[in-house]
Design brief:
Keywords: GTPase activation, Leucine-rich repeat, Repeat. One of its GO terms (molecular function) is GTPase activator activity. One of its GO terms (biological process) is nucleocytoplasmic transport. This is F-box domain-containing protein. Strands 1-2-3-4-5-6 form a six-stranded parallel sheet, with no helix packed on it. It is mostly helical. The chain folds into two domains: 89 residues, no CATH class; 172 residues, Ribonuclease Inhibitor (Leucine-rich repeat, LRR (right-handed beta-alpha superhelix)), CATH 3.80.10. Helix content is 41%, strand content 6%. Helix 11 links the parallel strand 4 and strand 5.
């Protein structure tokens, strides 16, 4: 294939698809030049075109072919040329990647890297946070993207009893931070419990929060379809009946580890509590500091050896 053929083909495509951006036209030109210089592939026939015969080739070489294609000349005005140059200059090397590849790359970033990356421009902000505008607040603004964000968790525990977070409400919390950056959370207020679905929170520490049996069950019900695998409910006066209801509502959750120290749980209901854990993912329960005898503890270990007591 010679240069004239590609110029002619490009001219036809430009007339047929006159709405193509100038940047695509430039890409077509570059591709044609690359194909012209590719050794071993420049003589391959194009799909839908018959391969020329030997006699036709000879006629071309001798200049005897009557149906020789006329060379096409692409003319670009000065204004179009200037716009094309500006578009090429504004295009970064990162822009050539599809958004799916960019999002895949972002998924490998850690907490310390993802924060400055989202501030590069509005496109990156949208790929990372789901929003083109920075600083979106409120739990109702849930980010929508296809990135695996589990690696973005802040390693440091987030305590809502500290001065800066004590005044934060579901309506004022940064949505990106709430859904993507929190991993281990201490003293999470009840107003946030209904919004745990869709977050990356994996550990919730509510020890010494004076929950009682009713609030404890309410909390457990909000763990359905979340990523939470560890809950600390130490010293909350849950009681025996509260522990049984807790175990029932853990069915269908991803919770694996439960801390229940010092909750006034008695021997009478511990075995029923353990039976209800059978159909859950729980494999570790801490029950020290309750009203449980050593005999009952021994029975738990014998009858439910798959759970660490």
């Amino acid at each position: 294939m010679n240069k004239n053929y590609y110029a002619s083909l490009l001219n036809k495509n430009m007339k047929k698809h006159c709405s193509l951006p100038l940047l695509q036209v430039a890409c077509f030109v570059l591709i044609s030049l690359l194909l012209q210089n590719c050794g071993g592939s420049h003589n391959l026939p194009i799909q839908g075109e018959e391969e020329p015969s030997t006699s036709t080739t000879i006629e071309k070489e001798e200049g005897q072919e009557q149906g020789r294609r006329k060379s096409a000349k692409i003319e670009i005005g000065e204004e179009q040329e200037q716009r094309l140059i500006e578009q090429v200059q504004e295009t970064s090397s990162f822009d050539i990647f599809p958004s799916e590849i960019c999002q895949y790359i972002f998924s490998y970033l850690k907490f310390e890297d993802i924060l400055p990356a989202r501030a590069v421009n509005s496109d990156w902000s949208e790929l990372i946070t789901g929003f083109r505008q920075a600083g979106i607040v409120g739990v109702e603004n849930k980010p929508s993207h296809i990135i695996d964000t589990r690696g973005w968790n802040k390693k440091k525990e987030i305590n809502f009893h500290c001065d800066k977070l004590r005044v934060i409400k579901p309506e004022t919390i940064p949505s990106f931070a709430f859904y993507c950056l929190m991993g281990s959370v201490r003293n999470l207020p009840q107003t946030f419990w209904p919004h745990l679905q869709g977050t990356n929170v994996h550990t919730i520490l509510l020890n010494q929060n004076q929950l009682g049996p009713i609030d404890t069950v309410k909390f457990i019900k909000h763990l359905q379809r979340t990523s939470i695998h560890t809950i600390d409910l130490n010293n909350n006066r849950i009681g025996t009946k509260g522990a049984i209801e807790l175990a029932k509502n853990l069915q269908g959750t991803n919770v694996e580890i439960v801390y229940l120290k010092g909750n006034q749980i008695e021997d009478a209901g511990v075995m029923e509590f353990a039976r209800n854990l059978q159909s859950t993912n729980v494999h570790t329960v801490y029950l020290r500091g309750n009203k449980i005898t050593s005999r009952t503890t021994k029975l738990l270990k014998e009858q439910y050896p798959h759970i660490k007591w």
